[in-house]
Specification:
binds zinc ion; 7-stranded antiparallel beta sheet; single chain; alpha+beta; 2 domains; 10 helices; about 20% strand
């Protein structure tokens, strides 16, 4: 089989600017916010009256003569409307989950771009629809401006700093303002052709996703499943959540809602979670390549598997997004390694035995015991193996009795087994680094 699908990649570079250019960017960003708010008002009114929320095409038609639309180049105005419509799409997706009882909190309507404290429109981002209106190379970003902001050459030309990691067909560009760092960044989507696959023999693996155990990997021909423990990752996440709550109550006492410190804490929490996830995704891609796996089956998250263990209730919503983020990162890492990722409907994968397909009992949360063959499973290992059997359509029946699964833990640098972490490499490494810093 040969695939010639295109993959989307994102280049991120920092954008440098002079004082005058900063003003132009701010004006553009403010106009984007104005259009967003005007169109969002229209959508919210429709939703609250029980009318259909306008589609992207309808929004474009209705707003093309609106002053907020006309104050922007059409490639920017259209992209703002497209983003707004996407925000409504995810709102409806969440609403469906909530109605099924799969989200604890009712999702809120897409928000206005407005600072709650000052009531001002914050400058957040400037989306540009297509490379007709911008050009980006290793040193320069140039952008079409609306008529009233044009000077000599009619374009805004900015220096950039950073490396364009991916080359391919340029697609949309987003200029995003980082309020904590007070910097602008350009995020450019490029389409790159997927690397051609050599005609390798098909070999399958499967991945089960969760919260307490973030991921469980089952590889065809291997009777030992690999578990990535979420314990350390969630502990760290909860620590930063606590710091955020402390800062929030400090702000509340001062009658405020947000602060730079608060945004910084949110960023830190997100960055640390992402670090563990990126390392996990890379480790999975590495293992799969090592085992010459060609296809990875991954559970379809459109409906969350029943009985998925999400831990304390208050982090349920976070976990839902986090599991999706992890899935996306793993999919991207596999695509780079030339491994095909195929979603599998995970029906019944946690309720029957992967050896004999009889129903299983759950004496303890993370254990599944087969009622017929008596095999005691780690519940996630059983689920991963069932996904593998479902995906490769081999019915049921694991090839050999599985061994005790291998558990990998996050040590804030790498995913390691208990054996490796006992060897003390990470401690020694960070110790020497600290010594070097002290010296
Ligand atoms: Zn059994």
């Amino acid at each position: 089989m040969w695939y010639h699908k295109n993959m989307k990649r994102c280049n991120i570079v920092r954008v440098l600017f002079s004082k005058e250019q900063a003003k132009v960017l701010e004006t553009l960003g403010d106009r984007c916010a104005a259009l967003w708010n005007a169109a969002n008002f229209r959508c919210r009114q429709a939703f609250l009256k029980g009318e259909p929320v306008p589609s992207y095409a309808t929004l474009c038609a209705e707003f093309q003569n609106h002053p907020a639309y006309k104050a922007l180049p059409s490639d920017i105005a259209q992209e703002v409307l497209k983003k707004l419509r996407k925000a409504w799409d995810s709102f409806f997706a969440c609403l469906r989950l909530w109605k099924k009882g799969k989200l604890e909190k009712r999702p809120g309507l897409p928000r206005y771009w407005k600072d709650r404290r000052t009531g001002k429109r914050p400058v957040r981002l400037i989306p540009v629809k297509s490379p007709r209106s911008y050009s980006l190379d290793a040193r320069m970003l140039s952008l079409t401006l609306p008529a009233d902001l044009r000077d000599g050459n009619g374009r805004l030309v900015l220096h950039t700093k950073g490396v364009l990691r991916f080359s391919g067909t340029p697609k949309t560009l987003e200029l995003r303002y980082d309020r904590v760092k007070k910097r602008w960044y350009a995020h450019q989507v490029v389409e790159v052709p997927e690397p051609e696959r050599k005609a390798k023999p098909e070999k399958y693996a499967a991945l089960d996703l969760g919260a307490r155990i973030l991921a469980t990997l089952a590889i065809e021909g291997s009777n030992r499943q690999i578990l990535f423990s979420g314990r350390k990752v969630w502990k760290d996440f909860l620590y930063w959540t606590k710091r955020i709550a402390e800062e929030q109550s400090r702000l509340a006492r001062a009658g405020r809602k947000t602060s730079r410190q608060l945004r910084k804490l949110y960023q830190t929490r997100a960055r640390r979670l992402r670090h563990a996830y990126l390392a996990l995704a890379a480790e999975i891609a590495r293992m799969l390549s090592q085992h010459r796996v060609t296809t990875l089956f991954i559970e379809d998250l459109t409906g969350i598997r029943e009985g998925m263990d999400f831990g304390p209730k208050n982090i349920l919503v976070h976990n839902f997004w986090a599991v999706r983020q992890l899935k996306n990162l793993i999919t991207a890492a596999c695509a780079r390694a030339g491994i095909k990722v195929v979603p599998v409907e995970p029906r019944g994968t946690s309720s029957r035995c992967a050896v004999c397909s009889s129903p299983t009992g759950r004496p303890v949360r993370h254990k599944a015991v087969c009622k017929r063959c008596g095999y005691v499973w780690h519940a996630d290992a059983n689920a991963a193996l069932n996904i593998l059997l479902l995906g490769s359509s081999k019915g049921h029946g694991a090839e050999a009795t599985p061994l005790k699964p291998l558990v990998l833990r996050w040590n804030r640098h790498r995913w390691v087994s208990r054996f490796e972490s006992a060897a003390g490499t990470p401690k020694a490494a960070s110790g020497s680094r600290m010594a070097a810093r002290a010296a």
